[in-house]
Amino acid sequence: MPSLGSRASSCLNPSAAILTPARPVPAPTSRIRTAALCFSSGYSSAIVLAPFVGPDEKQRAAVRILDVGAGTGLAGVKMAALGFKQLDALDPSEGMLKEAKQKGVYTNFYKEYIDDKQLPIAQDTYDSMVIVGGMGENAIPCSALHEMIRVVKPGGYIVNVTR
Fold first, then answer.
1. Short-list 127, 108, 121, CA closest to 147
2. How far apart are CA 77 and CA 85, in angstroms?
3. pLDDT at residue 139 is higher than 70
4. Of 42, 124, 129, 143, which has the highest C-beta tally within 10 A?
């Protein structure tokens, strides 16, 4: 599996589909590995997450993932196509979750806004978390990082995909 070290900030080169370290950050004090990723287009979280969690579908099928800001479920569809089967959706919009349910790729649905308040999710529930376009101004606040770390298992990944 590729490694970005304990904490790194990286960008994906869309034409080559290779993760490259952008700049190292100080040694972690948290329990998880993180990768902040930037993309020029698309719902690419599945493409990014796949090499980290396993090269084949059998390994991917065992990975439990929370899609934060799941919206209509487009990222979930992409992840399911690559063999990820244990997907849960979190979004504050009932209408978006209704559309995500129609995709048939998610198991659990949380109508919640992620911030510094504790979610109704147990600590260390997920192997990985993906956020596609959810971070930024008027979206998921930076204060939500503590809650993200709480629900992801030690050694897990938080993949933040932004444009």
1. 121
2. 10
3. yes
4. 129
- pLDDT over 90 (residue 27): no
> What are the DSSP E strand ranges found in 39-151?
64-68, 86-91, 106-111, 126-132
- Read off the DSSP letter of residue 110: E
Q: Is the confidence at residue 50, as pLDDT, over 70?
A: no
Report the amino acid identity of residue 101. Answer: K
The CA-to-CA distance between both ends of the chain, in Å, stands at 25
Q: Is 22 left (phi over 0), alpha (psi -120 to 50) or beta?
A: alpha
* Residue 107 zone, left/alpha/beta (φ > 0; ψ -120 to 50; rest): alpha
Q: Find the radius of gyration of the CA atoms of the chain.
A: 15
Confidence band for 15, pLDDT divided at 50, 70 and 90: very low
Q: Residue 156: how many CB atoms within 10 A of its CB? A: 25
pLDDT at 162: 74
Long-range contacts at 106-113 (CB < 8 A, ≥ 24 apart): 106/67, 106/70, 106/73, 106/76
pTM confidence score: 0.74
